[in-house]
Amino acid sequence: MRPHSLRAQLLVWLLVPLAAFVAFNSWVAYNNAIDMATVVHDRMLLGSARIIAEQVHYEDETLQVMVPPAALELFQSDSHDSVYYRISGPNHGLLAGSDDLPIAPKVSSTEEATFFDTVFRGEPVRVVAFSQPVFAAPEHGPVLIEVAQTRRSYQELADQLWEHAVQQQLLILAAMVVLLWIGMRRGMAPVMQLRNTVQQREPDTLEPLGLAAVPYEITPLVDAINDYVRRLEAHMAAHKRFIVNASHQLRTPLTVLNTQVDYGLRSTGLKDKDAALAAIKRGVLHGAKLVNQLLMLSTAEVHAGPPYDDVDLVATVKNVLEDLALLAQKKSIDLGFDFEEDVILVRGKLSMLDELVSNLVDNALRYTPAGGIVTVSAERLPADGRIVLRVEDNGPGIPQNEYEHVFERFYRLHTDNAEGSGLGLAIVREIAAACDAEITLSAPAGHRGLVVTVMLSSH
Questions:
Q1: Average pLDDT, integer, range 185-195
Q2: Region 153-181: what's the mean pLDDT?
Q3: Sign of the torsion angle spanned by Cα atoms 368, 373, 376, 380
Q4: Are the beta carbons of 453 and 442 closer than 8 angstroms?
Q5: Closest Cα to residue 457, out of 382, 361, 345, 356?
Q6: Among residues 62, 130, 203, 387, which is most buried (max CB within 10 A)?
């Protein structure tokens, strides 16, 4: 399906009411033409009746009437209309003209005209009835003069007036179409310029579009495009960082795996092969964990910010502790959870908060020596209702001057002998930022170790 033309739709929505207005105006013009033709026709009829009335007089005690040619010459036209007249005396006696011409249904008072339409000899006619007193003998009463004309010239005059008005309306409509088309082309020019600007961009260009020459109505669209460009840039940057980090971190494990495989292939003893396979398994597990951490780091970067969900922090911590209970048991570490409420809802994203807690507890278990203590606690601050999540251990801790560095990617302490990639706390910080949370490090009171505090927004 071809896309709809915005210019064509605008033109249609503008022309439809304009065409309706022209149609209505044409109907009004037709009625006006009928009224104008009627006025002209009636004046001609009345003028003819007055000319005839002026020729009525008494002579030798009788009414005499003569119809002058000028009275009928008024109706000369190319329409070949028929003209009829009837002159009646005071007693409605016929003095001249057509006796069968209908008499006006209601005769007006003296020297006033009455107009009416009727059918005479099979044709529609317009009739004027004019009552004229005889000034030489007013006591004998008025004379009634009727003049009728067929309606051919009347209809032609009305048609000509209407056609002239319609032609003007159509010319105005045509001019409006041209002007609207020109106006829309000029009005759509910024949109077309915006299209050309986007089309001429290089594929790797992610700069926001400028708003200087953009009309007000298109500004929301440009803002939406710029917002998408910003999100796309962040998404692509995260992917690039993931590729760089993955290539950098996986190169060494893959090289070690290749060496271990070569060693296993060259070994002839079963014990040496088993040792090589065990080393390969540890390397594969380490690589898989590294890939998962890189993916989570990339996900936290891309999906930072709202929308947030209501996550039960207590249930999340319990699930994480159940998954890591075996690791704590192997190292004889006392792993506990201290919480004040059975359900604590926080604003965040379930998968990310689960990963945040998992990384914090896993780091604490790995760096805490055998027989140590790791405690997770959650409480609500009475002042502002925020939720405080703490993970405390009695391990070697972190020097205070290293607090900021340990959040850097792949950063490891010089005294760090535990297995790891240096991504745990970096992931925790990215997830905290994605969930609009704050994370801080501190030393526990009264003993060595580390306390990781995460400040979360409550429901």
A1: 75
A2: 84
A3: negative
A4: yes
A5: 345
A6: 130
Compare 90 and 16 and report the one with higher pLDDT: 16
pLDDT at 371: 92
> Strand pairing partners for 59?
62
* Mean pLDDT to the nearest integer, 37-54: 84
Contact 252, 422 (CB under 8 A): no
Assess contact for 307 and 345: CB atoms under 8 A.
no
Q: Is the dihedral of CA 117, 120, 125, 130 positive or negative?
A: negative
Distance separating alpha carbons of residues 182 and 188, to the nearest angstrom:
10
Determine the residue type at 227. Answer: D
Statement: residue 164 has pLDDT above 90 = no
| 345-366 per-position pLDDT tens digit | 988 877 788 888 988 898 899 8
- Other beta carbons less than 10 A from residue 305's beta carbon: 11
pLDDT digits (tens, 9 = 90+) for 96-129: 888 888 887 776 566 788 888 888 888 898 888 8
- Cβ contacts of 232 within 8 Å, gap of 6 or more: 206
Cα dihedral 392/397/400/406 (nearest 10)? -90
Query: What is the structure's pLDDT at 87?
Result: 84
